[in-house]
Design a protein that fits this description.
The complex is a heterodimer. In chain A, a hairpin with a 2-residue loop joins β3 and β4. Helix content of chain A is about 35%, strand content about 10%. Chain A folds into 2 domains: about 110 residues, Ubiquitin-like (UB roll) (Roll); about 130 residues, Alpha-helical ferredoxin (Fumarate Reductase Iron-sulfur Protein, Chain B, domain 2). In chain A, the strands form 2 sheets. A 5-stranded mixed sheet of chain A has the order 2-1-5-3-4. A two-stranded antiparallel ribbon of chain A has the order 6-7. By secondary structure, chain A is an alpha+beta fold. The longest helix of chain A has 16 residues. By secondary structure, chain B is mainly α. Chain B is built from 10 helices and no strands. Classes of the chains: A alpha+beta, B mainly alpha. The interface between A and B is large, with 53 and 45 residues.
């Protein structure tokens, strides 16, 4: 495959960036999107040019590091996959592909396509945990949990914190991320105890870090690589409002 | 307890949700009242006389105006915050995501269209009805009684430009409500996967009822003016 690429190049956080044109040739349709970028970077290094900086780690859809906005979609045009799981067979020979970094005030660009997503870490540090020592692994069914609750908790826990929700949201809202973290713990007895404190602390930190207000467009759910439902946002709203009304 | 309605993003959405809910209930009441005019001018005028410049009507009007102001101010405030959160650097390529409605991404624009229609409506009706009564006048700017609501409706909707303006206004309201009605349930947390299709269906039904009810009066009176 031969592809025309328009890639965001930005020297550092303070510099102005711009889209730069590149052409890659002999790309296998079976190669992943990140492998295609590796090939391009290899060519750039051989030419003596600076390679394109982009985040990546596990390359199997778990770590949430790859964070590219491809042709208007977070993680590219396929559904419920991360950028590293996107393959070039989703594109046609001769296609033009525009690759941009996440755009959100809370995710400033570090360099080229890499952004600083430590804001999500700070939200987690504010309350995305249980503060008791849970000890060793208990016997199975020592604490009975309804199947529906366990399923919902696991669905929410599938969030990899990649930032696609805030990057897609026209309001730059991180509600889906926060909701997934709150929901995954609120549906389990161990996490339920601190549910009210957690919801208040994480929402407060989210607001403090400059994320926007959720207006229920559902764009986050549509672009989430793990298909996290906005029903978790409804649960976060319930958790937060009931906690505040009890204050 | 009150500060979270100002300081928290979830609290601010609660304010939008509750004020929006009250306004939707008012729209349904207003629409039901208007439909009376299609069947009986006397009955409609009786309602207009009942809801004139009485103290309870004035208190309700002030409360309603306060809700409208709060809803608009919060909408502008939330939008400004959201624009800041989005950042100064925007995507070069954007697409409409699957299953994301156009209305949901254009609520402020639709809201301003609704507000513009509301101002025309105030000039046409409120100014010639309740405001005339408040000022102690017995005759409005059109030379009719401020409680002759049916006559005012017949006068304004015999003019095609007003018919078009009002129908466009109702269309903007329809789009606004298709997102707003289900969204208010989501914002207070009364939603889940089972109820999303039901809530969106309820939103479409409410929006269509409001549109059809208001539009019916406009169209019927325009057709009558042609006969």
């Amino acid at each position: 495959m031969k592809l025309n690429l328009k890639i965001w190049r930005q020297k550092d956080a303070k510099s102005e960036g711009k889209l730069k044109d590149y052409t890659v040739d002999n790309i296998s349709p079976d190669s992943s999107f990140l492998e295609m970028l590796d090939i391009l970077n290899n060519d750039l290094i051989h030419k003596g040019e600076e390679p394109i900086v982009f985040d990546h780690d596990c390359r199997e859809g778990i770590c949430g590091m790859c964070s590219l906005h491809i042709n208007g979609h977070a993680h590219g045009p396929d559904s419920e996959i991360t950028t590293c799981q996107l393959h070039m067979r989703k594109f046609k020979d001769g296609d033009t592909i525009v690759i941009e970094p996440w755009r959100s005030a809370a995710f400033p660009v570090i360099k080229d396509l890499a952004v600083d997503r430590s804001a999500y870490d700070k939200i987690l540090q504010a309350g995305g945990f249980i503060s008791v020592n849970t000890g060793g692994v208990p016997d199975a069914n020592a604490i009975p949990i309804p199947k529906e609750d366990a399923d919902e908790s696991m669905d929410a826990a599938a969030c990899i914190g990649c930032g696609a929700c805030a990057a897609t949201c026209k309001n730059g809202s991180a509600m889906l991320f926060v909701a997934a973290r709150v929901s995954s713990l609120a549906k389990l007895p161990q996490g339920r105890v601190e549910g009210a404190r957690r919801a208040k602390a994480m929402v407060a930190k989210m607001d403090e870090l400059g994320f926007g207000n959720c207006t229920n467009t559902g764009a986050c759910e549509a672009e989430c690589p793990k298909g996290i439902s906005i029903s978790h946002i409804a649960r976060l709203n319930r958790e937060f409002l009931s906690a505040k009304l009890k204050d | 307890m009150n500060c979270f309605l100002v300081q928290s993003s979830v609290g601010r959405k609660l304010v939008m949700s509750i004020s929006g809910c009250c306004l939707v209930l008012f729209l349904l009441f207003h629409m039901s009242m208007n439909i009376t005019a299609v069947f009986s001018a006397e009955a409609y005028d009786a309602i207009c006389a009942f809801l004139g410049a009485n103290w309870y009507a004035l208190v309700a009007t002030v409360a309603l105006a306060a809700l409208v102001v709060v809803h608009i101010l919060y909408a502008i405030w939330l939008t400004l915050q959201n624009r800041t959160a989005r950042g100064s650097q925007r995507y070069k390529v954007t697409v409409q995501e699957a299953n994301v409605s156009w209305s949901s991404k254009n609520m402020l624009v639709l809201g301003f269209a609704v507000l513009a229609g509301l101002l025309v409506h105030f000039f046409n009706f409120w100014y010639n009805m309740q405001f005339t009564e408040i000022m102690g006048e017995h005759v409005n700017s059109l030379g009719t009684s401020p409680v002759s609501g049916a006559e005012l409706i017949a006068y304004h909707f015999s003019k095609l430009p007003y018919v078009i303006i009002y129908l466009v206004w109702f269309a903007a309201l329809w789009f606004h409500l298709t997102h707003g009605v289900w969204s208010m349930f989501q914002s207070v947390g009364w939603a889940n996967k089972t109820w999303y299709p039901r809530l969106k269906c309820i939103a479409n039904v409410v929006a269509t009822l409001v549109f059809a009810g208001f539009a019916l009066v406009v169209v019927v009176f325009y057709i009558r003016s042609l006969c």
